[in-house]
């Protein structure tokens, strides 16, 4: 694994291909209170690009270009949160998207354990280290441990997509999964607009 650490933006000439694993690190889990600090990406080649945001401006045209490319599928785990964060801070709507957490919930109905660590352990055979999950992502310079943690969150998403897609197709659930993925930008917009928990489809 090689981790490429970029402050502010990606290099202008970067090409991550047709499938890009994406994750974010933030100061917390509130879309209203907590800032976007880091975006990490991988093309599935074993390398990861970790971009530390300039939170004074969020001026990162190369990153925005990669994320907004409609010709590449963005693979995320619990995409609802990351799509909303990127939408809020970078003004980019991620699409098309494949969410490995939604996929897991639709095809791994024999378990209620759908966290990235659990899904990766079962389907890839890798036991991820989550020790840096709650560290200070707003630090001026990220530590090596933080960089390795951020990278690990995107390194296995391509193979997870492949294996979950096979399971979804086997169970005849790929079409409904795709409909869920397509709805994610709208779900994120509802979260940002103040309807995070309300089921707008409910009778009352």
Short structural description:
The chain is built from seven helices and six strands. With 204 residues, the protein is of the alpha/beta class.
Describe the largest sheet: 6 strands, mixed
> What is the global morphology?
globular
Strand ordering within the main sheet: 1-4-3-2-5-6
- CATH superfamily membership: Ribonuclease H-like superfamily/Ribonuclease H
Q: Which fold name corresponds to the CATH topology? A: Nucleotidyltransferase, domain 5
The CATH class name reads Alpha Beta
Instruction: Write the element-wise H/E pattern from the N-terminal end onward.
Output: EEEEHEHEHHHHH
Overall average pLDDT: 96
The chain-level structural class is alpha/beta
Tell me the count of domains.
1
**Fraction of residues in H or I helices:** 40-55%
Instruction: Give the strand tally.
Output: 6
List the helices and strands and how they pair.
Layout: E1 2-7, E2 19-26, E3 36-42, E4 47-52, H1 61-68, E5 73-76, H2 79-90, E6 97-99, H3 100-107, H4 116-124, H5 144-155, H6 157-170, H7 174-193
Parallel strand pairs: 1-4, 2-5, 5-6
Antiparallel strand pairs: 2-3, 3-4
Helix pairs in contact: 2-7, 3-6, 4-6
């Amino acid at each position: 694994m090689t981790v490429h650490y970029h402050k502010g933006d990606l290099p202008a000439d970067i090409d991550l291909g047709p499938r890009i694993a994406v994750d974010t690190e933030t100061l917390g889990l509130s879309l209203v209170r907590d800032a976007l600090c880091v975006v990490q990406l991988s093309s599935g080649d074993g390398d990861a690009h970790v971009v530390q945001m300039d939170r004074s401006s969020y001026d990162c045209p190369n990153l925005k270009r990669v994320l907004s490319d409609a010709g590449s599928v963005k693979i995320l785990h619990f995409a609802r949160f990351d799509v909303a964060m990127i939408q809020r801070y970078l003004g980019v709507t991620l699409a098309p998207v494949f969410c490995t957490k939604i996929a897991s919930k639709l095809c791994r109905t024999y378990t209620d354990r759908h966290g990235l660590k659990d899904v990766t352990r079962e389907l890839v055979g890798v036991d991820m280290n989550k020790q840096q999950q709650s560290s200070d992502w707003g630090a001026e310079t990220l530590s090596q441990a933080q960089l390795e943690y951020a990278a690990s969150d995107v390194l296995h998403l391509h193979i997870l997509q492949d294996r979950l897609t096979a399971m979804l197709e086997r169970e005849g659930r790929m079409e409904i999964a795709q409909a869920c993925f397509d709805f994610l930008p709208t779900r994120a917009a509802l979260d940002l607009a103040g309807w995070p928990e309300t089921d707008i489809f409910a009778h009352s």
